[in-house]
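To: structure subgroup
Subject: Chain for Friday's discussion

All,

I'm putting the inputs and outputs inline so they're searchable in the archive.
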Amino acid sequence: MRTGRVAAALVVSALAGFGVRALARQWVSVTVRGPSMEPAYRHGDRLLARRRPGTLRAGDVVVFEGPVRDGGWELPVAQAGDTARGWLVKRVVAVGGDPVPTHFAGAAPAGEVVPPGHLFVLGDNREVSVDSRRIGCVPVERVLGKAVHIGRRSTKAVASG
């Protein structure tokens, strides 16, 4: 009888492990850094990003790999678990085939069409955000996932003991 319980516990543990790995392949936790997405998201807020988000639309918030210092994306596309890359959180304003909104022009001229396979993204706090106005359109292949807000960082003071 005891052997049956041990076997059942092992099966449940194995299934739970597979389930956790399956979730990790679909979702990634991201912490917002800086004020560029205020007021929607503040520094320290936690987001879940769904990998392989499917069709992205204007209004979606995405987590994507920022360009290297010279403004290009020469590095290979980041793989799951790559923590050495600089991830950015921004809102999609236009997708491939859409015109760049006139009042958001910058690196891409107003009225120019966003190239297929690219996104025009902006931070909600336009005054401090480094976004498509400065770095240009973002290749969709550099998107880690579509963000879902899951919690604000605690603003309560923590007493040390």
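Points worth raising on Friday:
The longest helix spans residues 2-26.
Strands lie at 27-31, 46-50, 61-65, 87-95, 118-122, 138-139, 143-151.

D.
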